Amino acid sequence: MAGLVPRPATLAIVPAMSTPLASIFGSGFLVIVPVLASSVGPYSLWAMLAVAFVAFHTGAVVRHNILCAEPVLAAGSQRLTLTLERLSDGALVLAYIVSVCLYIHILSAFVLGAFGLDSGFNKSLFTTLVIGVITAIGIMGGLRPLERMERWALYVTILVLAVLLAAFALRDISDFLDTGRFVLPSMPQRSGWEMVTMVAGTLIVVQGFETPRYLGQSFDTWTRIHASRWSQYVSLTVYVAFVAVVLPLVPILDGQYADNSLIQVVASVSVLLSAPLILAAGLSQFSAAVADTLAAAANLEEVTRRRLTQRWGYLLVGGAAMALAWSGSTFTVIALASRAFALYYLLQCLVALTVCRNRRERVRFFLVALALIFVLLFAVPAG
């Protein structure tokens, strides 16, 4: 496929990248470091690289389906492909419901953490209230205007990320010049199996690269393929760099990892950075939750062949997400979201296998499917 790829103009790709980037950055940069440090300690960077590797090859499945499966689905010529695609649409609705809960759970952790009110009960209650507000606005028909927040939230998130990367890197350099070494977090007392299954539960943090698959009304095929690929290049590079520069500062947490531990790490570098971090957390998580609520309701309407209106869709999505808010900690919801998206990506692998004629690609998709089956069956929460 690579040798025949037309190259859309860069300016055409950038708008198509905003949705996947907003989703990917919204999914996990706020929590990835404490999750990995709790799971594998000093090997967090290697774990991030492994997650990025699996995510990129899963993205290749989505890009293959944009090119090869969409024409087959449009023609309706293969019943198995159509059936698997419909199943994946249903799985995506479930995954979006969990991700809505996750986004607002993270928002609650950071907003309440700023005031020292981040108990488990308070986070679940605040999450329920915010999702309730989003649901009510959706039922009244007012969510579409809020969707415009996505691009501005992305700009703020990227700006804050750039500032944090620079601040952490400068602090790392300063500490290295003072001590002559980097101090990494200690190794947790876990078995190899526990560590692997916890890392498997972090797939959600790089989720979002599939969104160009559903932007066909706004962008052509090759623009969407390039947007998906470049959103992964950018986001995965940033994630790996972020983990690399934050890791030497993690020992200040003294082995006590929480969903909002990044606030404490940032404050150790400069208290002036805490407010921008919380602002980015609020904007990115709220806008991502709105986008996924809209997508879930629209998909639900399509899956039910319009027997269920979008207003009922908002009610079902919001109600289910509010119920999930009481299912456990943020780390628990992260693992649940990873398993939900693993199911969706697995079904996309099966869609790809029904239309792919290239033996090497089929082997690649089969191996990706095996990795996703592992996540689906064995992923567990960190902590």
Characterize the structure shown:
The structure is a single chain. This protein is mostly helical. The protein has a single domain (28-378), classed as Amino acid/polyamine transporter I, CATH 1.20.1740. The chain has helices spanning 10-28, 32-40, 44-75, 79-113, 120-139, 143-146, 149-179, 192-200, 221-246, 261-269, 274-303, 310-324, 330-355, 359-378. α4 runs antiparallel to α13 and α5 packs antiparallel against α12. It starts with 9 loop residues before the first helix and ends in a 5-residue tail after the last helix. The relative contact order is 0.22.
Going by helix content, strand content and strand pairing, the class is: mainly alpha
**Main sheet: strands, sense, barrel:** none
At the fourth level of CATH, the homologous superfamily is Amino acid/polyamine transporter I
Q: Report, as a whole number of angstroms, the end-to-end distance.
A: 42 Å
CATH architecture verdict:
Up-down Bundle
Alpha plus pi helix count: 14
Indicate how many domains the architecture comprises: 1
Order of helices and strands: HHHHHHHHHHHHHH
What would you report as the Rg, rounded to the nearest angstrom? Answer: 20 Å
The name CATH uses for the topology is Amino acid/polyamine transporter I
- The CATH class is Mainly Alpha
Number of beta-strand segments: 0
Give the proportion of residues in helices: over 70%
Note poorly predicted spans.
none
Mean pLDDT: 91
Shape: globular
Assess the beta-strand content as a share of residues: under 5%
